[in-house]
Every structure is written in C-alpha cells, then in structure tokens.
Amino acid sequence: MGWGNTITRRLKVFSMALLIYFDYKAVQKRVQWVSTTKKSATWTKTHERNARRVLNLMIELEGLWVKMGQYLSTRADVLPEPYINVLKQLQDSLPPRPLEEVRGTIEKELGKPMSDVFADFVLDPLATASIAQVHRATLADGREVVVKIQHDGIKEIILEDLKNAKSLIEWIAWAEPQYNFNPMIDEWCKEAPKELDFNHEAENTRTVSRNLSHKTDCGSGSISSAVHVLIPEVIQSTDKVLILEYMDGIRLNDNDSLEAYGVDKQKLVEEITRAYAHQIYIDGFFNGDPHPGNFLVSKEPPHKPILLDFGLTKRISKSMTQALAKMFLSCAEGDHVALLSAFAEMGLKLRVDMPQQAMDIATVFFRQSTTASEAKNIKALSDQRERNVKALQEKMKLNKKEVQKFNPVDAFPGDAIIFMRVLNLLRGLSASLNVKIVYLDIMRPFAESTLLGSLTHGQIPNSQWIYDSPANSDVESKLRNYLLELGSDKILGIQVCAYKDGKVIIDTAAGMLGKYDPRPVQPDSLFPVFSVTKGITAGMVHWLVNEGKLKYEETVANIWPNFGTNTKELIKVHHLLNHTSGLHNALGDVVKSDPMLVCDWEETLNQIAKCTPETEPGSAQIYHYLSFGWLCGGVIEHASGKKFQEVLEEAIVRPLHIEGELYIGIPPGVESRLAALTVDTEELQKLSGIRAGPGVPPELLNNVAQMASGVPVLFNTLNVRRAIIPAANGHCSARALARYYAALATGGSIPPPHSADSKPPLGSHVHTPKFPTAPLKKKKGTGKKKCVSSTGNLQDVSNSDKNGYSQLRTSDADDEAAAAGSGSRIFSSDKILDAFMGVGEYESMVHPNGKFGLGFRRYSNASGTLRFFGHSGMGGSTGFCDVENNFAMAVMVNKMSLGSVTRGVVRLVLEELGLPVPDEFSTSGEKGPDMVLNLAPPEQQS
C-alpha cells in the first residue's frame, strides 16, 4: 500500500468527517426556529443523508471501516433508525475478490495445488467480509467444509485504518469533549490486528468449543453448561487460510427464513446471551465481535445458534473476570460499595465522588434490551445522561463549557471496554431481531458462579475463612472452632471482640465482606450496625451532661427552641433517652412514603421538631426505633453548638483512639473497608411466629418482614450510608465498639492500648481521610479547592462538609496531643454508671420495670439482678458490657438474622469464662427477644 493510497484514504476519511460534522452543526442551528413536527422531519432527513455518506465511504474503503459499520448497524437501541436501515447493508456480502487472488493465496499458504486439496470448490463465495471471504468446498476425503481466505494486502490497510480511526476519534474528543471514545479505539488498536492471523483464530475456535462443551456447576447447583450452541470443527489453518467444518444455517438477517423454519427468536438470543455469559464469567475467554454476521441458526429443531469467527477473542485474568462479575451483581443489587470495589479491582478510576451516578451509568450496560421500534429508549438514555451531567456540574461547581470538557473517568481498563462492547453488540442483536432480553436474569447464575466459586460450595480452608491473626486466649481458639462449625451457611461475615479487665481476650474476624464481595473480613472492616448506634448516641448525650452542657431533667424545648410545639413542651432529655417521650413513631409515616428523607439531616431535624407525641411524657416506654437518633441528635447539636460528627469525634473517637473505625454516617474515602448487608431468608421466615413484646410499636412489627428484606437494598447504597441517622446508621468494627463498652464498663476509664497483634493497629486510620491537593481550577473569592483523593475521588474541600466532617484536619501529632490532653477518662462523674442503667438517684427518670435505662438496654442475669447494659441492632450485631466483672463484648454480622449466631457466640464466650449470660442472649431467647425489636418468643407471650 503506497504513500499515495495512504494519503488518499486519510483525506477521504477526514473530509467526510468534517462534512458530516458541519452538516449537523448547521442543522442544529436551523431547527431552533421550526415547529416540532418539521424539526423531527428535518433530523430524519439529515440522518438519512449522512448515513448514506458513511455507507458509501465504508464500502469504498473496505477494511476496518466495514467492521466499524457492521458494529454500528447493530446498535438499534441507541443509533437513529435511518443509520440502522442504511448501515445494515454492510451485514451482507461485499463485492468478492477475484478468483485468481483467492487461488494464489490458498496455494501459497497450503503449499500445494487447490486440486490436491479439494474435490470441489464453489467459485461463488458464501460471503465476503472486511478481512476475508468464505467459499464452500469439499475436501479430497469427502468432508463438506468452508474455506476462509484472507484478502491480499488487507493487513496493511487495516493497520492504516486504525491510525486514521485513532486520529478521527481524537479530533472528535477535542471538538466535542463529551464524546470521548479514545479508550475504545485504543483497545481496538490493540486487539484488531490479532484477527489477521488465522492460526490464532483456529486455536481460539478450539478453545471456545472445548469450554462450552464442559458442564459447569452454576451457583444454585443447576448445570448451566447445557449452553446449546454449535461451533464448527477446525480442519486446518495457516496465517491466511482457515478450513472449517461446514454447517448449514440461516442468517440472522434472513427474517423470512427464520419465520419459515419456525425459529423462536426470543430463545435464540437468550441462548446466545447465555453462551456469552459462560465465555465471559466462567471461562474468561470470549469472542469480542458478536455482530449478526457471526451467527447462523441451525435449520433442524431445536434451531441452535451457530457461533462463527473467533478472530477477535479476548482472554481476561481471573481477577478481571471476578471484578466484571462483581460489577454485574452489584448493579443487580444496587450495592454502591461493591460497585466501587469492582471498579477499583478492574482498574477503572473515577475523578469525582458520585456513587449514585456511577451506579446509574453501570446499570445502563445491564438494562433490559429493547426492540428497534422502541425509539423512546434513545430518549431515556439521553435524559439520563443529561441528569448525570447536571449532577456533575452541581457537584464540581462547573459552568456549561467546563462540564463538557471534564471527564469524570481517570482511567478505563481495556478489558472492560471489550466486555462492554460485547454487551452493546448483544443488545443490538436483540434490538435488530425485535426481542427483549432480561440480562440480569440470564447472566446472574454465571456471574455468581465465578464470583463466589468455592466460597459457596464445599469446605473453605480455615486459613482463608478465619482472618489470620494469633489467638489472644484459649476461649478465642474455641470461638474460632465454633465459627467454623457454623460455617458459611449461617455466617457471611463476622467480627467478635471482647475485653476482660481492660485486656483484649478476643479479636476475631471471619468470612467475607458481602454476598457478592468475596474479599475477607479483616479487623478494621466496617459493619453497618443499625440500633447498636443508639448506644453510641446515648453515650454522646451523657458526655455532654458530664461536661456541663446539658441536664437530664432539662426540657428539650429549652435547648432546642423549635422543638417546643405541638404539646412537646414538657418532654425532657431523660424522656428521650428512656423511650418515654411519646414520639416513638415520629416521622414513621413520612419516612415510609419518602425513604430518602433520612439522608437529609437538617430537613429531618426540622420535621421531627414539628411532630406531635402520641402518649404523655413518661407514661409509657415504647421503643423509639428510628426517632431516637434524630431526637438525641438535635439535642446534641443544640446543646454543644457543634456538628453531630464533631461531638462524636471529640467525645468518643479521639479519646479512645479508635479513629477510622467508628462512624455515624461515613465520610468518603472508607468505601474499600465496608461490609455489605444481606438477609438470612431462612430466619426471616420465623418472623411469622413472633408477636410484639410490650413496648414495641405495632406499626413497626407489622412491617418488619418487609423492612428486613428491604433494608439491605437501602443501606447498601452509599448515599444512605453517608447519612447521619443516629438510631440506625452506625458503621464500626467490633474492636472499636468493644473498646467503647470496655470504657463504659468502668465508668469511663480508657483501657490500655488495643492488642498489638491486631493488624492493622486500631487507631491507625485517619478518621476523615485526607485528600492531597490537586486543584482543578481556581475561582476568586470561593476559598475552596478541588482535591483528588488517594482513591481518585475528587472532593470539595472546605472547613466542613454537609455532614459536619472536617476536611482540613490537623496533623497526626495534633490529634495525638488532643487525645493525650483529654485525660485517662471520658467521664468524670462517679455516678455515670447509675445514669447509664437508670438506677440509684436516676431511677425516677426511667419507666418502672422498663427494659431501658437512660439510652441503653439494660439486661438482667438469671436471678433478675441488673448488671449489664448495651444495645443490639436489627440483624444481629451487638455491643454490651458487664459492670461487675469488667467485661465488654461486641459482635458484628452482615448476614441479617434474628440473632441466633450472635446469641450462640455470646453464650459460648461467657460460659467459657464462667460469667453470667444476660437474658437477651440466654437459651430461652432462641426466637429473638430484644435482639431485633424487643420481640419475645411465642411460648413466652400470654
């Protein structure tokens, strides 16, 4: 291919691109002044005109441009219909190459005359494509075959076309920054040349055939590799000639024949999708070019798809396969944490912290396909894109011009590009055949199989399931054996930590971070703990009382003026702590109708200040299941004059040196350590046999099954995890919570440093991750900078964010000095333990025979003596302490249940230590006393 031809091809490509670009720009200006009807007709004509230009140029240039046109012709879900109708012609054969050229290539490659190889060779080709043409033939031994012969000189043309395509894409990205396809063309430049080696294609064909013929156990135990597809046998290959078994089939664009043979197009595309799911998720080896020309349908029932052309076949690593599976399943579950984890494992880096938009974009790839007639899909995608751009603009404080030039993706892995290209081609295939495919249903078993692997079947090696750390005591060794006995059927992920006499005796982590996140739980992993958070919030209120900022007998309205409306003037601080304010169901109906209201801290405080109590203050103890947090949170902020998060850090986190492992509403930057929730469906069924114990709002129990199944979906989203919900949104490690209760058990004495064997050391994380300065731009007078985090997330940096996190932190030395300066106690009052449990001089502030002291659930031993306090949460996580024996314990779980695992763990530890067992964890509580919602087992209810 001489320089003259090279320059000519380049000029033709760029002159056509400019012509089309200016045509669209001109029409864009012109249609602003016409009616809607005329506007639509004008755009249709413009699309048709430019589609014909593109088609003519692609046919003239052949090579790579034909392949690109074939790809575009399958995108009926996103391209305007005129383009699909015109470019469809490229799926048919191109003009054939001369027989002399074909003969010369065959004889040169095979090293013998054609007559020695073939008994018969059909001169008219079956098809002529961009790289090669295919002839039907009969071998000398009588076998029916097809012969694929590479076009003479096509290699040089393809390589030149790739350069031109790369230059064109770069120009488009410069002219219209929002259309930056550079990552895609870069990957194509790397992969496309592989199609030019037919030995490579032959080996790929054999490999895919072997893979799809093996039976594969897929997740639920069903055998999935009854993937019913046909792949031709490879007879012989060279660099430029490939001889394959002949299979008689119908082309996918031959709709009349498909109808005549009674082919079920829905099942056909579903089977093709299953075959690709198997290739991607099970084998990690898949054909990257599934356009309609690469499929036939067998004429004999059950009309299996025939897979052809494995030149562009991609092998991906096991880690990438798992990351792609995690991305798919996190989209299916709406799990932001797993999605961001998948992105990180794939090597996809984001410049901006917008998890909801990341989920929206990722979910687009796995959405249900639409038929070609449903053009509204294009508008829906366009509308979604506009919403995401607007959110980006608001987040980054960018103007229109700046947001067009800002690319939120810092790095996009090539393997993921080929994967997404395959999904797009499959989507186009279903659109062109006018069928709908539910990808989530078809691909889920394959993704689950590869992601979970041995974790869902068989015995997992102990070294992989229990986090590798030395046992602190004999009781910890026995506990670990007990956890292994329970196994992954009852436990997904778990942490257990216990202090005795200020010393760590248990610090165990086991299992994995989520149902679709097989990373191991570590001691510093953060678990969502729901009502366990109430015990932390209560501790903050007591701290303010201890500091002289607040009094238990003080009316809330005196501290929080807006609260004193709708007969709430007599409600006192101790009524809130003791669940006797009468506001047990405050905001229940509002949150039910608008669950995302919980993410708006200020608005929720305003709403709760307007609520009306249902009972007289102090008259009845009814569990404040959700309102407790906002009621106490409002008091904390108004009494302290500080943000809720600042008080939490000052009162608890820094003095106990548990930075980075106890939050109520997480900051950006800790996502990689988050455990994801799931539900123990078997235990959930037991709820039908449980009635509310005294003091449980009926509204809560009526919705408990629905709520329990819906909670993981809601609380696995980052926008909810980042919200301040001080009754239900704690994130902590067991070692941080156990240390908190170890301090409370002694009336506030700070325990000695946590065990040195616990890695990473407790307190080694920065509580609010720092973001290195890397300004995007400067704006006079804003006093703000845009900074990129160590994880690639771009953040606004100011004195504090909307949740009260200080983004410009003092140095570590300052933090240590502050912690040291706080003294060896977090409470100075010698009566603080009585206040926690509501005994002694505080007995009049609690409801007689109630389950709660001032903010804490108080437990009795077998003799009925009050000696324990703490707080459990929905799903099974708990933290508590035994004052008399100076013992504290925390258990974190991410498989939500009625608490049977937690009760078993607590009983084993306490019985081994010879300590009494609190009634909540006793054998009589198998059905779930206060572990979930103050519920009592049916046999104990009258």
UniProtKB/TrEMBL annotation:
<dbReference type="InterPro" id="IPR011009">
    <property type="entry name" value="Kinase-like_dom_sf"/>
</dbReference>
<feature type="region of interest" description="Disordered">
    <location>
        <begin position="751"/>
        <end position="813"/>
    </location>
</feature>
<dbReference type="InterPro" id="IPR001466">
    <property type="entry name" value="Beta-lactam-related"/>
</dbReference>
<dbReference type="InterPro" id="IPR012338">
    <property type="entry name" value="Beta-lactam/transpept-like"/>
</dbReference>
<dbReference type="Pfam" id="PF03109">
    <property type="entry name" value="ABC1"/>
</dbReference>
<dbReference type="InterPro" id="IPR004147">
    <property type="entry name" value="ABC1_dom"/>
</dbReference>
<feature type="compositionally biased region" description="Polar residues">
    <location>
        <begin position="788"/>
        <end position="810"/>
    </location>
</feature>
<keyword id="KW-0732">Signal</keyword>
<feature type="signal peptide">
    <location>
        <begin position="1"/>
        <end position="28"/>
    </location>
</feature>
<dbReference type="Pfam" id="PF00144">
    <property type="entry name" value="Beta-lactamase"/>
</dbReference>
<feature type="coiled-coil region">
    <location>
        <begin position="375"/>
        <end position="402"/>
    </location>
</feature>
<dbReference type="InterPro" id="IPR051130">
    <property type="entry name" value="Mito_struct-func_regulator"/>
</dbReference>
<feature type="region of interest" description="Disordered">
    <location>
        <begin position="919"/>
        <end position="942"/>
    </location>
</feature>
<keyword id="KW-0175">Coiled coil</keyword>
<protein>
    <recommendedName>
        <fullName>ABC1 family protein</fullName>
    </recommendedName>
</protein>
<feature type="domain" description="ABC1 atypical kinase-like">
    <location>
        <begin position="89"/>
        <end position="339"/>
    </location>
</feature>
<feature type="compositionally biased region" description="Basic residues">
    <location>
        <begin position="776"/>
        <end position="787"/>
    </location>
</feature>
<feature type="domain" description="Beta-lactamase-related">
    <location>
        <begin position="489"/>
        <end position="762"/>
    </location>
</feature>
